[in-house]
Amino acid sequence: MHLVRALISGPAESDSSGVIKMKIGDIVSLVSGGPKMTVQSVRKAIGKQPVHCIWFEKNKLAQAAFDAGVLKKAVPEGNFKDS
Fold it and tell me: Among 2-16, 22-36, 41-55, where is mean pLDDT lowest?
């Protein structure tokens, strides 16, 4: 399977291949669209960065692992600023 690397636009931090760096707790989505997901863990592997994500589908917890190149950082809904 050939994975397309995410294009970087804006100030997001990325590695030398143009893949956005992810950390636990980041809110992400697939480059092609879909639900907002929370990064649960990030593993370093040769040539890949498997990112394990969790999200809810109809009140049921879902999870999957993705190559970082198919994910983009998403802006969370609502106001998350400290009061």
Answer: 2-16
Distance CA 25, CA 44 (A): 17
Task: Please state whether the predicted TM-score (pTM) of the whole model is above 0.70.
Answer: no
44: domain CATH number? 2.30.30
Six-digit token string for 67: 């190559």
Contact 53, 28 (CB under 8 A): yes
Confidence of residue 71 (pLDDT cuts 50, 70, 90): very high
Is the residue at 82 inside a domain? Answer: no
Number of domains in the chain: 1
Q: Residue 45: helix, strand or coil by DSSP?
A: strand
The partner residues of 66 in beta bridges, in order of sequence, read 51
